Amino acid sequence: MIKTELFEQVDFQENPLYEKIIDDLLTKQYSIVDSFFSATEVEVLRSSLLQKYNDEEFKKAAIGNRTNETIIKSIRGDFIHWINEKEANTAECLFFGIMNTLVDYLNRTCFLGILFKEFHYAIYPKGTFYKRHLDTFMNDDRRKLSFVCYLNDENWDNANGGELVIYLNKDGQEVSEVIYPLPGRVVIFESQLLEHEVKPVLANERYSITGWLKTR
Ligand SMILES: O=C(O)CCC(=O)C(=O)O
Ligand SMILES: [Fe+2]
Q1: Tell me, what's the ipTM?
Q2: Which listed ligand is nearest to 191 at the C-alpha?
Q3: 90-110 vs 39-54: helix axis angle to the nearest 10?
């Protein structure tokens, strides 16, 4: 006799890379993924960033959200340009394609309820930094996960500085994780929980895309 199954297979393909990110977030509140973007993808995105920078589309980053902007140079010195998905160029379409796949996966497997996302390019010229902060201090408590990907070229030297330092609490003791902005590397962390800073860039310019996955 043929046994009929009483359940149906849901259309779902497990992704080991995304599972690692989820596991990291659950166990230590942050995840570092090398080669999240390929060398070619990094190059395409860096060209797009530099093109916009040369067209003077960047502005000095501010403290506060977009309706409450005050420039405080002693806190952060980077230049940013918000990326609009509706007006995305080829490089940005590629970027959003990858990000949307990740967000769909997180929503389907973790019920994170990510409904909004926002991303900007960032350039840290030599001598600039971003002092220790929590991403939700910009009175935006909808920010759930912070995302950074580094678009430096393959010759990026650790001596250039510009490390991301994440501060963690381990058994009541503060410890820090120092992360070099290597091309293709992605860092994702809990926006509301982890304070972090960008150390001064000592040589060269530091390129990245930073963004937030937000709940309602
Ligand atoms: O670029 C980084 O590594 C982090 C940037 C950051 O903390 C921010 O833009 O809020
Ligand atoms: Fe931040």
Answers
A1: 0.99
A2: 2
A3: 120
